[in-house]
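Checklist before submission:
- one chain only
- standard amino acids only
- sequence pasted in full

Submission:
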Amino acid sequence: MDIAIITKKEPRTTIRSTGGFLTEELEESAEILDNYLAKRIPQIEQELISLGVLEKTIPKDQTKLGRGDVLLWHSLGKKLRSLCQEKKILGRKERRWLWEAIENIHATRRIIRATRGRTRIHFEYCYRLSKVPLEFADQVNWSEWVYFFDSRTVREEPRVDDWLLKLVNRGEKINRKIFRQFVERLNKRVKKLDTSELNQEELFLIYEELWNQTKQTINSNL
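Returned file contents:
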């Protein structure tokens, strides 16, 4: 099913669509989604305030925004992921349009953070973080997760999210040192490798090898 999303309204309305040609039906569906987001995104912000993880006051334009923490962004990610599932916005490209719509039109500065490139998108990081349990995610701080998702080998390879769940399921522990060193090793190992050519088993073997090497190196230095 084709999807259309209004991503900008000023100075003129921009609609992104998977259908190529924007039909009247797609334009209508984009308006319906926009009206939904106009209600749902403020609701999400209020729900996060009620949970005690988001500030009540909207920061002024000149105010420097804080980083936030794992609890806040994991909580936001869960709500964004639920929204995507409800509206069947599942592809990365379509999600990127949704994040543009939320940032440009519907969200306040409470949850908006700087986007540092076409694929380095704050809401996408929250979405991906929420795939792992909070108890696992909270073992390192938000800056470590940003470092992880910022890495090209991670942000362009969504299967790494499934591998993280393998760590969760076998009770692996992470910390700042091991996490950063693992990402550094991963970046060096697959810097020039097109991981799309690897099947999941081959890719996961690389992750496991680097993860075990990292743990052994750190443990030997203790």
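Reviewer check: Strands lie at 4-8, 14-17.
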